[in-house]
Amino acid sequence: VRGFSFEVPLPSETTRIAIGPLAEANLGTVAATGCLVLDQALEAAHGVALRAFAARLIREPSAPVVLPGGESCKDPAGLPGLWRQLAARGLDRESALVVAGGGALLDACGFAAATFHRGIRVVNVPTTFVGQVDAGIGGKCALNLDGAKNQVGLVRQPSCVAVDPAFLLTLPDASFRSGLGELAKSALLAGGQLHALTASRAPAVLARDPAALESAIGLALAFKASVVAEDPLDRGRRRILNAGHSAGHVIEAEALRRGLALSHGECVAIGLAIEASAHPRAARDEVVRALGRFALPSRMPFAIESSAARDLLLRDKKRQGGVMSLPVILAPGRVVLEDVPAEALLAPLAAA
Ligand SMILES: NC(=O)c1ccc[n+]([C@@H]2O[C@H](COP(=O)([O-])OP(=O)(O)OC[C@H]3O[C@@H](n4cnc5c(N)ncnc54)[C@H](O)[C@@H]3O)[C@@H](O)[C@H]2O)c1
Ligand SMILES: [Zn+2]
After folding, report:
1. Rounded to whole angstroms, how far apart are CA atoms 144 and 76?
2. Which residue, 189, 128, 171, 167, is CA-closest to 333?
3. Is 69 in the pocket of ligand 1 (CB under 6 A)?
4. What is the pLDDT of residues 82-114, one digit of tens each?
């Protein structure tokens, strides 16, 4: 048997980001053909503005695709229908999609775009707080499989991202609080200006003041961008962005089982505090204080029995054997990845 190996360098991808009123976002022309895909919840209040935005990026836009947003759009069964809608509009490998919606719709459409004709360009317009501080950039596009989240996916960076905090004014409180959890996480990881801003302007952020949101989101995205650029495929440093999520996912699953309304971001907030309890060098007090400024929870709302917590933790994809790679926040802006036995998280999860 003869063989050989060869190296293929990853093509580098550039994402341009505009933060501020959508009507003023100047991102130039992205493609000659393509279309807008939007969440039907946005149609009434933002449909006209989004069509106008798409028409500035795509020279000859086809009719928009309107889809219901939310977690159900991450069902792989919806993909063929979406591909057919793109094909019916005559889109080809040179086309682009402008996608406006929450994190779930961005994930699903990012996946659809990355697989349609082996990959067409995407412009993201995240319209939820989670979308704006997190899902809109970084290129992770995942679908759910048989109820298990993010089991199928790929990483493909969007060409552009336009973030307009005005979209957040219509967001239900629970969805806004979810974004606050992710913002608090980013501020603790990033430290510096973002941590200072979330400390000094927390009331303005909570009141959804557009200027405060614009500053906070801008700094959170700049931080995430720097981490993604260092480790786009999530093999190392990017894992710090999972802070709060190992414990958070366990809490989220238990809350779901009990029928309690706790958003993903609130579970991440509690998860940040729990994970800080599991490591002797973690800055637990700083973490709890930062969460408190955003009126986010930091205590367990219920006790999770150890064997149930262990089962949920061991399902976690960040775990290898009984040891998990856990981001440990030593101080705002100082985070290290450490191997922590899953057992260390069981006691704080079991303490209500
Ligand atoms: N790719 C990533 O890096 C990444 C990061 C974080 C989260 N996610 C994914 O994002 C999803 C969560 O996203 P989400 O929190 O944005 O929720 P979501 O996308 O599920 O949207 C929640 C609801 O908000 C509605 N909505 C959207 N914009 C609105 C607006 N401006 N006003 C009122 N309602 C609006 C939607 O129609 C939907 O019903 C999860 O599936 C998660 O896995 C992905
Ligand atoms: Zn999250």
Report:
1. 7
2. 189
3. yes
4. 999 999 999 999 999 999 999 999 999 999 999
